[in-house]
């Protein structure tokens, strides 16, 4: 029996990693996606994430996990972040290690701690609906479940994974909570259309809410060595031994996404529940997503992102992202993507926006790495 | 009976005017098309025109007519140009005034003078064939005809006017000289295809070769006031009175293309002949033309124009024109046109290359004129 209410034992964890190479050349190694303002609202995605979580948890219960290289940028973006809640990785080890370390540190601080993991680089509109979903998820987590938040699809998206919902769990909440039957990989368009038609399939927004100990114990079933190492680091976290422990153990950790180490096995064993939510959510994975976000999906519209951007266009559609005050003139272009930075100009189409990643990968091996 | 051979009375006139607004933002008011290097060969089109004419006429018989604003640029490009052969206009008055003034000055210097007018901003490959055609045209001109040089079409071009050839004129030359039956405006694609199929239609390259007096007398039938004014200016040309005379008369001159004041009426009255030629010719009227020129028409190729241009492309095709040393990355673009200058970036397609002019016209009235 816990004496402190679940929501008061709840810490928001923001894993802030990932360059977002599909958003190159706007995103760079030194300017990863979570540090960018992709909505034109004036805040980086990280800052917007912080602002969104503030009504749910006070600053002392918001934690950020990021790479050493981004420590200063993160502190600059989030002046309210407490030093003890900034967890840095010496090298990127994917989400199991990042979220797992946060969980282990929180478990160390309070064995009854509940945590929720929320990406630093997604866009959400409808904060009240988001907050309500999180609070419902926290209640389910307090009962020992691993909860996720699924988004009701508004179109047959092929760029997101889906959650197939099972039985409604009215024992956990009167509405909107379901067993997770399984997680489904990004579907083709026909399958995505069928999901939309038949219902019961939600977008997987990659949010996980659980007791820290439950999350770690679940992860330990798949990755016992990883969890043992994370708990060892956490046991000395905040002391002078922390750096040494992390130094010794971190580089040997396996790189595995929390989806595979936790979410899928938990779903298979009936420990995963889903809160179905209606807020607008996008992982803004490529420039086509940003264009749709800025034009709110209106066909034929041209989206413009950039402070000094001057755009002269006829009936052209797509998106112009400008980091200069040059005039960008478009003539007769449909669904074009133009990204104008100081040292790189990218021109592609919304249909090929995903292929930017392939170009970036090519540059890594063929030279031009200084521009990444 | 002339004692001096026709070719030794022949002066090449290069009207160097026209911004080339379809090539904006590469072309600007201060950097008109004829001052640009559009082939990547290192020479401006004007300089290349000069080089092409040198084997036909010595420097003392090559004349340039240009706007006052471009005097210095022209002199810089053509150090061999004699001061008395640089004719400047106080304001642009279209080709009848420009070529007519040159003709009047040459007529003043030598009543038997023959002139040929060759645009400063076209691209020609096959100089020997060009020289031979010009020499044939000079012979016909000496006989009192107005000669033009028509290019055998290699594809059903819709961007050029055509010359419909009549009877072969073996009295003037053993081969390749025909009466001009009429000039035909830019055709649609079906018509252009039919021209190519049936033969007898040549591209109108806008070259006119005639005795100066014949050209002026023909022009005087349509535009007597214009020709009278030009002859009045020419009568004092080279004296201290020239500037005053030009100042007084020039602004009142009608703006009319030499095609309408001379070529079409001359054709209608049987005074126009055509030399059919096989050299490669292009008026490089838009970026699609430049792309075709640089890739020699190979489909799927990407053309690159610019000294410092760095281009990273997958299977994209079209043209990149770069005035910077920025990396230009293209992903999945077909027949794209990217023009990257210091203050303007243009993105369009080969299919819309002609529409750049409409954009420029819009800018003239709606602001942004400082970028033109």
UniProtKB/TrEMBL annotation, chains A, B:
Alphabetical keyword list: Nucleotidyltransferase, Transferase
The UniProt record lists the keyword Ribonucleoprotein: no
InterPro entries, per the entry: GMPP_N (IPR049577), ManC/GMP-like_b-helix (IPR054566), Mannose-6P_isomerase_type2 (IPR051161), NTP_transferase_dom (IPR005835)
GO molecular function list: mannose-1-phosphate guanylyltransferase (GTP) activity
Domain Nucleotidyl transferase as annotated: residue spans: 13-292
Positions of the MannoseP isomerase/GMP-like beta-helix domain: 316-362
Catalytic activity, EC: 2.7.7.13
Example GO BP: GDP-mannose biosynthetic process
Domain of life: Bacteria
Enzyme class: transferase
Coiled-coil regions listed: none
Protein name, entry field: Mannose-1-phosphate guanylyltransferase RfbM
């Amino acid at each position: 029996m816990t004496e402190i209410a679940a929501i008061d034992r709840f810490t928001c964890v923001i894993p802030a990693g990932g360059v977002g190479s599909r958003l190159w050349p706007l995103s760079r190694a030194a300017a990863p996606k979570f540090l960018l303002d992709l909505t034109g609202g004036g805040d980086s995605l990280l800052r917007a994430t912080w602002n969104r979580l503030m009504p749910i948890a006070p600053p002392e219960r918001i934690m950020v996990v990021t790479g050493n290289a981004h420590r200063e940028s993160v502190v600059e973006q989030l002046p309210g972040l407490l030093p003890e809640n900034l967890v840095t990785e010496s090298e990127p080890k994917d989400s199991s290690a990042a979220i797992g370390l946060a969980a282990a540190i929180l478990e160390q601080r309070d064995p009854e701690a509940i945590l929720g993991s929320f990406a630093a680089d997604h866009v959400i509109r409808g904060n009240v609906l988001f907050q309500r979903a999180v609070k419902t998820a926290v209640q389910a987590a307090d009962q020992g479940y691993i909860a996720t938040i699924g988004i009701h699809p508004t179109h047959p998206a092929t760029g997101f994974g889906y959650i197939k919902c099972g039985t409604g769990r009215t024992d956990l909440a009167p509405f909107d909570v379901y067993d997770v039957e399984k997680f489904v990989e990004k579907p083709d368009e026909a399958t995505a259309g069928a999901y939309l038609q038949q219902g019961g399939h939600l977008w997987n927004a990659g949010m996980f809410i659980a007791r820290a100990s439950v999350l770690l114990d679940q992860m330990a079933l798949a990755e016992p060595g990883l969890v043992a190492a994370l708990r060892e680091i956490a046991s000395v976290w905040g002391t002078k031994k922390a750096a040494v422990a992390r130094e010794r153990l971190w580089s040997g950790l396996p790189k595995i996404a929390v989806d595979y180490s936790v979410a899928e096995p938990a779903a298979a064993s009936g420990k995963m529940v889903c809160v179905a939510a209606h807020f607008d959510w996008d992982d803004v994975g490529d420039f086509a997503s940003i264009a749709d976000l800025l034009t709110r999906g209106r066909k034929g519209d041209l989206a413009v992102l950039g402070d000094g951007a001057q755009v002269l266009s006829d009936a052209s559609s797509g998106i112009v992202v400008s980091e200069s005050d040059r005039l960008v003139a478009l003539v007769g272009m449909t669904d074009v993507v133009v990204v104008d930075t100081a040292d790189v100009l990218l021109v592609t189409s919304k249909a090929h926006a995903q292929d930017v990643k392939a170009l970036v990968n090519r540059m890594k091996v063929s030279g031009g790495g200084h521009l990444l």
